[in-house]
Amino acid sequence: MKQLACFSAILLIAFIVCLFDFPKPFDFAKDIAYMLKPILGLLIGYQLCKEYFDNPFIIILRTGIVLAVFHMLNIAYAFTFLHIRDMPTLRMHTGYFSDFEVYAIIILIFRKQLGLEISYKKVKLFLPLLIFSTALYLARSNFIQFAILYVAMKGYFVADRRSLTILALSVIILGGGYTAIYYSNPSRTRGAEAFFYKIKNAPKEAFKTHVNKYNWKDLNDNYRSYETIMTYKQVTDEGPATIAFGKGLGSKTDLRTKMWLQTSFMRFIPFLHNGFTTVFLKSGLAGVILLLVSILLLFKNKPFDNSVITNINLIIVGTGVYLFVSYWVFLGFYFIVDTKAVIFGFLVRYRENIARAVTNRMQ
Hints:
Helices cover about 70% and strands about 5% of the residues. By secondary structure, it is mainly alpha-helical. It starts with a helix and ends with a helix. About 35% of the residues are buried.
């Protein structure tokens, strides 16, 4: 209910503000659909996990396996019949990332801690399939997501000396790996090197404060920053009220130049890669604060004397950590193909079901 309240309040602010601007009906309807996405995802996930399921995690696992099979078939088709060899085109045809597959991997790895009953033969079959499929998305976000969820399930986000030592060592190893990639100077267009080029460019891609729109390479490599810069300027130029409450439903960011965005050339865009900036455009600082509250709520989980609930809480904490990254680079819960909201709603309901069953047995 707290999560739903946060996202409903963000939508309500944007709706009230738009009443003063009279947006075009299509733009208004499109924004309503986007802003409802987290609310619907949470509710759908919550309803998916019924009390009579003996092994609810099998739903996420089976969904991840089906998605992995379809992904592998898509890759085979694109490689064999479309003769696609470069990474950007391959990802455009076969998919950019998959939340479900990453969560399915985590659930399989920590199946005992999560109470999932599945034979070891099936684990040996499904786990390599899921890992291989996820790796072939060549998505930085999926690698980061897996690392964060794995670290969370190991309990390393609990503040103690051991956790801090392991996190510090991880930072040093990652820093060394990034340094090696940076100085290897990978190609921005050739095969696997294009993936490493994206890793090299990642730290500045979403944080750069100046992008030259007349320099194609600079604009293409740092497009996420360019979106944010344009949005910030256009919102703040309209005064304190707009900064506080945004420009409402139907509002758009003017890129000042037409750009090819997946299917067509566009200059005015209603949603950005950065979820925080998108909410700032629609609902201002009030919306951004509510969005941050919705993330921070994931770190406040009531302790319960049950190992499965404890581990579900760890997944939820890991999801909260990852959402800071996800909202910054890929809209988070608001992204049209994002499934984390559904998975989170599912986890909350499953946790409630276990707690209710344990309490009833004790009574």
